[in-house]
Amino acid sequence: MQVIDFQETPVKKVRHQLLYLVYGDKDAYRHEAKFSILTALAHGNPSTLPSIRVLTDRPEDYQGWPVETLALSPQLLTEWQGHNGYIHRRKACAILAGLTLAEKTLFVDTDTLFLADPDLLFKQIQPGQYLMDSFEYNWDYVCKREDYLKLGTHLRAHGISPDNSFKLYNSGLCGVTDNDAALLTQAIERIDEWTEDGFDIHTIEQIAISFTLRNQTINETNKHVYHYFAEKRFFHTMLAHFFAQHGEAFGTQLLERCHDVPHTRPFPSAWRRLKIKWKLRHQRGALYRIGRDLLYGSAAPEHPYYNLCRHHWWDSASREILRLDPEHQQHLFGQLEHWPQHLPEPSKAQDKPIIMTYLRERLAASG
Question: Which domain of life is it from (predicted)?
Fold first, then answer.
C-alpha cells in the first residue's frame, strides 16, 4: 500500500483506475470497500487490472493491501460537503478530484461486488460515452411526488418538464474520462443550487450527474457488478462474519475465500417463492408483506452465510407489524404464544418458535 497526500504530492497518472471513497470509522463501510476490492481482484485479469485507489481519512486501514491510498484531511472532507450540509456532495467532488489521476476512472460505491473482469467496463468508457450503475426511472415518473416538487422548480428553470423528461440513473458506479472535469463541475454546481435552501431528496447527487449527462450516451454496469445498496443489512452481517473468520490482512487466502460469500441476499428459490405466493393468495397489503418476509426467512437456501442473516427477513416483518395501527396490531399480533392464525406457517416446523421469539423480542423492544 502506498499512502499519498494527493493535495501536496503529485500522483502518477495511470491508464485506468478504480476509485473508492471511504471515510469515518464504521467497520461496515471498511468491510464493504475491502470486499469490493477483493471481488475486483478475484475476477480481474492480472495483465489488465486497473490501479485501485482509495480516497480515505484512514489510510492505515489498508496497510498491506494492493491499493494506493489518497489521504483525505478533515478540512478537505468538510470542503467537499459544501456549505449546504449535503454529505453526498463529497462523492461528486471525489470523482472530480480523481479525473486527473487516470485516463479513465470508474468510481465505485463500496457496496458493490464485481461479477466479472473490471476491464470489460473500462472498454465501454469512451469520450462522450459514460457508465452508470443502472437506470432507475424517468423524471416524468417521479416529478409529481411531494418530495420532488421543490427540485422540479429548479429543473423547470433549466427547461425540464414532464414533456421533455430525462433518465435518472443510480450512480453507484460512474465511469468517466480525464476530459470530463467540466461535466463534474457542472454537476457539483447543480448540487449546490438544488440544496441551497434545504433538500428533501438524499439522491440529489445522482440526479445532478444524470441531468448533466442527459444528452450523452450512458451504458449500465449492472451486468458486470452487483450493487446491493438496498440489501445492506444482509451483506453487513455476512461480511462481518467473513472478516471475523479470516482477518483483514490481505493475502492469497483472503482472495480465495471471498468466493465463499454469496453474491445475493438469502432469497428463496423460484419454486419456494411460488409456493409462498400461493399460500398468501388471500392476503393483501401489510399482511401479505409480513407473511412473505416471515416465510422468506424460513425458506432461505441452506448456506453457512445465509444462516447468519435470514433473521433480517423477520426484522422486516416486525417493522411492518409496528406500522399497523395499535388496535389492528394488538388484534393480529398481540398474542404470539402460538403462530398467528391468519398467516400460513413456515415449512420448517423448527422455525416457528424461533420466529415467534424473535417477533416478541422485537415488538417488546419497540416499547
Answer: Bacteria
Q: What are the cell numbers at 274?
A: 411460488
Q: What's the pLDDT score for residue 292?
A: 97
Could you say which DSSP state residue 168 is in?
A: E
Query: Does one domain contain both 221 and 275?
Result: no
pTM of the predicted protein model: 0.94
Cα–Cα distance between 57 and 70 in angstroms, integer? 8
pLDDT bin (cut points 50, 70, 90) of residue 129 is: very high
Indicate whether 197 and 331 sit together in one domain: no
What is the C-alpha separation between 294 and 343, in angstroms, rounded? 9
Regarding whether 150 and 31 lie in a shared domain, the answer is yes
User: Residue 167: pLDDT above 90?
Assistant: yes
Work out the average pLDDT over 41-60: 96
| Complete DSSP assignment for 173-203 | EEEEETT-HHHHHHHHHHHHHHTTT--S-TT
Question: Per-residue pLDDT for 304 more than 90?
Answer: yes
Nearest Cα to 171, choosing from 143, 140, 199, 212? 212
Residue 110 lies in a domain: yes
Closest CA to 291 of 362, 367, 347: 347
> Is 104 within the bounds of a domain?
yes
* 157 and 37 both lie in a single domain: yes
Strands 51-56 and 14-22, how do they pair? Answer: parallel
Domain of 316 in residue numbering reads as 266-365
Please state, in angstroms and rounded to a whole number, the distance separating the CA atoms of residues 21 and 56: 6
Distance CA 285, CA 278 (A): 15
